[in-house]
Structures are given as structure tokens and as C-alpha cells.
Amino acid sequence: MMEYPLLLRGILERSRKLFPKKEIVSRDYTGIWRYNYGDFYKRVCRLANVLQEMGIHKGDRVATLAWNNHRHLELYFGVTCYGALLHTLNLRLFTEQLEYVINHAEDKVIFVDQDLLPLLEGIKDKLPTVQAYIVMTDSDELPATGLNPVYSYEKLLAAAPDAFDFPEDLDEYTPAAMCYTTATTGDPKGVIYTHRGLYLHSMCIGLADSLALSETDSLLPIVPMFHVNAWGLPYACTWFGSKQVLPGARPDPATICKLIEEEKVTLAAGVPTIWMAVLAAYRQQKFDFSSVRGFVCGGSAAPKALIKAFDEEIGVPILHAYGMTETTPVVLVSKPKSYMLDWPADQLYDAKAKQGLLVPGLEMKVVDEEGREAAWDGKQIGELWLRGPWIAKEYYKDPERSKPAFAGGWLHTSDIVSVDKEGFVSIVDRAKDLIKSGGEWISSVDLENTIMAHPAVQEAAVVAMPHEKWVERPVACVVIREDWKGRLSEADIISFLEDKVAKWWLPDKVIFVDEIPKTSVGKFNKKALRQRLEQA
Predict the structure, then answer these.
(1) Is the Cβ–Cβ distance between 325 and 191 less than 8 Å?
(2) What is the DSSP letter of 65?
(3) Going by C-beta distance under 8 Å and a sequence separation of 6 or more, which residues neighbour residue 26?
(4) HSE toward the beta carbon, residue 502, CA cutoff 13 A
(5) What is the CATH number of domain 252-431?
(6) Does residue 438 surpass a pLDDT of 70?
(7) Average pLDDT score over residue span 277-283
(8) What pTM value is reported for the model?
(9) Right CATH for 433-536 from 3.40.50.720, 3.50.50.60, 3.30.300.30, 3.30.70.3400
(10) Are 264 and 218 in contact (CB under 8 A)?
(11) What is the three-state SS of 405-421?
């Protein structure tokens, strides 16, 4: 066999040679920016020349603090194909966490969107490794800022040549990108993605039994490009020549719906809270989603009621998926097997609400508290362990936390799961969110999803609260749909649950709230919720 390194350069070159006319659409600050992969390639070359002129070397960390836009996409390839390491900063981190990850990664340059400058200005004197800031704006003039030295992205690119010889001799295990986990306790943990891992992950995304991404797709990545590289979708889209629709800064549900309608989006990806908001927007104004073949839903468990609502009200299937920062991230995709399509509707929805089947290329096992592998009977539970070519092997410069998380050559996910006889994995809970009441386990995820099946409920989060007799008991926090305000009581929720869950699963309290706190990537922030309840 010929030795051939799996490099992102190959993905970039394919889009230039085969799909130069295919469109990239980006929602910029002053309107919609449109260009094609041919022009995209030239701008990526200009960017690589800028990096060279700035003295960036192989392995240097180049950070981005940016929304989902065309400039961020250019950085995805300009930095990585040049041989440097792309560090996508989470713009929703607390100030102290943002400072920590920049310093821990030792970022040399930060590319920042114009409206995100304030996030850096307050910590600029605490970032000793940062040598320059490049502001990304569509304005001719830079906004006023205390950052120094500061440059204009567009002016730097305009002065650079539009050709560049990207290195062909990089080792495929060369680090290409990195993200930090959104820690709710302790400092965020760094995860490195190699050229090889991203290449193989992108290939997996194109498989028919995965996301089936192809040249025919128009993809809208709502999942942030700073979060696990937007689930790897920008790399895969570029490779396959898919049209990319980038939603830009702070897109609200109506903006997302309009982009889907106007750009004939076929596939979009986001977390459950995004799809809940899109569903609410659709119910107010019936947008045209006829082009859509599916919405990918990951990040946390998608309620069965949400999957059913999209299917029955809009005619768009929710494609349930699972992954983590440490897994690049695609691990599981919930696509029913062919014969399952003949199942009764409710049974089929049960299957679609599971996280699904392991994608080709990875291995998994489920290990119980005694260290034994759990049976695939849909009942026994254990921790999900993973390994494969796009699974991380350690946390960046963090041996203490790496040791237990990657013991024995497996990633120990801390997700408690069951596997049914079909091989479909169902997340029971995060280990830290399981509720142990009177010696019995209660799944907060299952209880939340059952509550959200009530037609009046928009969102629901369940947390454990201390109890003198039972050690822990579940408390449910519920957001009611606007059209049901004042018409729903705690007793109504309990009554709704009584014939759907075990009696000892019934929440001790149902608390109605205006909103449920979210993490930086849109998941329910149960730590913050518990703290709020303890202080009430």
C-alpha cells in the first residue's frame, strides 16, 4: 500500500478542484456574504501567507473567538493546513475560564469577531503569550479597542498573495485543532484533534448510515464552530462540496427559520434547546421547510415529544446523535434499521429517541459498577467506554485528570447507558446527574423527557435534592408554553406522570420557572439549577 498521510490539505484541495462553483453563504454584520469554494480557496491561501508573514510556526496555537461565519471557516483550513494548531475559543465561557484556556493553550495570535472584542479587552493584560489580535469585520475601519497590537483581517488578506504551497509532509498525527470542554466544575479540559482523526471523522459523517452528508446538501451548522469544531461538519462539507449556510452572530429562532427557508437548507445541526425554540417559532409563523431532509440533534438527549412534534407538525425528521468533545464528536446516530420501519409508530419513536447505533470505525463497551460488561437487554446499565481513531487519548497538559478518564486505553465517558437487543444505546443519565433515592436509581433524563411530552410544557429539567429519609429525591423545574400560562398546576404534572413512570419516580416538587439556566453550548445547567433551588 502507498504511504499517504491523511491531512486536511487533501480536503481543501478537493473542494478547489471539484467544487469551485459551489456556494458558501454567510450572514455577516451588514448583510449576506456569498462566494464559492474557488474564491474560498484563494482567501485561505491569503490567510496562510498572513500567518507566515506574522512568524507563525508549525505547532503554534492560533486562537479564534468567532461566530459561525465565512472568516471562521477560512481559519479552519488556513491555520490547520499551514501546520499550526487551531484553537476555537468558547465565547460563552466565564471571563476566568477564557483567560485560563488562552494561557493554558499558550495561544500566540487571536482572531476575533468585531462584536466580541470586549471579551478580550478585560483580560488583555493577563495573556502573556498573545502577540497580536486580528479583528474580523466587514467594515473598512477597525472598531475602537484597547487591544494592542491589532490588525484588520480583511486588510491583511487584501495585501497577501492568493497562492500558497501547503506542506505535504506533515505527519497525519500532527495536531490540527483543539477545543476545551465546557466544565461545570474545575477548569476546562483541553482536547486535541489530529489531521488523521478529523479526516476519518469527516469520512464517517458522509456514510449513509451516519449523517449521509453529500454534495447535494445545503447544510446549516447552528451548533457553534467553537464547540467541537461544529461537530466536524465544516470539514466534511468542504470535502464533499456541500453548500454551507453560516448563520453569523447571535441568530435568533426566526433568523434560523428564514435561512432554512431562503437557502433551501437540507440538513441542519443543533442541540435540543435550539430545536425547541425553532419549533416554537414555526408554530407562530409557518415557514417553508420543504427542502429539509432532517435536523441533527445532539449535545443532550432529545425528548421523544420533540421528535414526534417535528415529524407530525412539520414533516421533518429529527436525527438523534451523540458525541462529546473528547470524541470529535460523532459516536452514535439513531437511524432505525430497515425492518424497524414496520414497527408501530410509538415503538418506532421510542427507538428514534435513543442515541442510536455506534457508527462504523469505533468500539464501545458498557461497564457496570463491578467492572463487568452489561448485557444488551435494554435494562442493565453501566458507563459507556469508547475507543477508535477519532477518540482522544488524553487531556492536553493534564495528566492527573487524564489518567482515570482514559484508563486502559478506553475513554470513560461518565455517561450511564443501556443497550437494547438491537444495539441501540440509550443515555440513562450523566453519572453525576443520576438520582439515587432509597437505594434505587432514577434517570433525570427519562423523567424530563416524560414531562416534556405534556403539550403545555416547553422545557423541563430534573435535579436531585437532599432528603432526610431517601437521601435524594427528584425536583422538576418546568417552563410552560406561552399559550398555557395560568392553566397548569403542579398537580396536573404529577397526574400526567402517574401512569407513565414508577410511583417512586414522581417528583417531590414541580416548580414553574420562566427559564432554565443553560450552559455555554445550550445544555441544561443542572449545577446552576441546583444552586438556585438551594438558595430559594
Answers:
(1) yes
(2) E
(3) 32, 33, 34, 69, 70, 71, 73, 246, 248
(4) 9
(5) 3.40.50.12780
(6) yes
(7) 95
(8) 0.87
(9) 3.30.300.30
(10) yes
(11) HCHHHCEEEEEEEEECC
CA angle 76–78–82, rounded 5-degree value: 120
328: left (phi over 0), alpha (psi -120 to 50) or beta: left
Report the distance separating Cα 493 and Cα 446, nearest Å.
15
C-alpha 323/C-alpha 333 separation (Å) is 9
Nearest to 178 by CA among 192, 196, 194: 192
Q: Percent of the chain scored above 70 by pLDDT?
A: 99
- Quick: pLDDT tens for 462-489: 998 888 878 789 999 999 998 898 899 9
Q: Among 185-189, 217-221, 334-338, which is the least confidently predicted range?
A: 185-189
- Under DSSP, is residue 86 helix (H, G, I), strand (E, B) or coil? strand
Phi and psi torsions of 459, nearest 5°: -145, 155
Q: For residue 122, which of 141, 140, 146, 105 has the smallest C-alpha distance? A: 146
Please say whether the beta carbons of 147 and 36 come within 8 A. Answer: no
Q: How far is CA 35 from the centre of its chain?
A: 26
3-class SS letters over 254-274: HHHHHHHHHCCCCEEEECHHH
Please tell me the predicted confidence (pLDDT) of residue 93.
87
Rounded to whole angstroms, the Cα distance separating 354 from 247 reads 28
* pLDDT for residue 439 is more than 70: no
Q: Domain 8-22+36-194, what fold?
A: Rossmann fold (3.40.50)
> How many other CB atoms are there within 10 angstroms of residue 340's CB atom?
14
Through-space distance between the first and last CA atoms of the chain, rounded to whole angstroms: 66
Is residue 5 over pLDDT 80? yes
- What residues are paired with 385 via a beta bridge? 365, 412
Distance between CA 207 and CA 230 in Å, rounded?
Answer: 18
Q: Say whether 433-536 and 252-431 share the same fold.
A: no
**Could you give the CA distance from residue 447 to residue 526 in angstroms, rounded to a whole number?**
14
SS3 content of the chain, % helix, strand, coil (to 5): 35, 25, 40
Which residues are CB-contacts of 52 (< 8 A; sequence separation ≥ 6)?
82, 164
Tell me the catalytic residues: 181, 326, 436, 441
What are the backbone angles phi and psi of residue 386, rounded to the nearest 5°?
-135, 150
Q: Using CA atoms, how far apart are residues 421 and 67, in angstroms rounded to an integer? A: 41
Spans of all domains in the chain = 8-22+36-194, 252-431, 433-536
Report the C-alpha gap between 235 and 244 in whole angstroms.
Answer: 11
CA distances from 112 to 63, 158, 251 (A): 8, 18, 18
Give the residue among 84, 516, 37 at the shortest CA–CA distance from 240.
Answer: 37
Distance, CA of 140 to CA of 143 (rounded, Å): 10
Q: What is the DSSP string of 17-61?
A: HH-TT-EEEEEETTEEEEEEHHHHHHHHHHHHHHHHHTT--TT-E
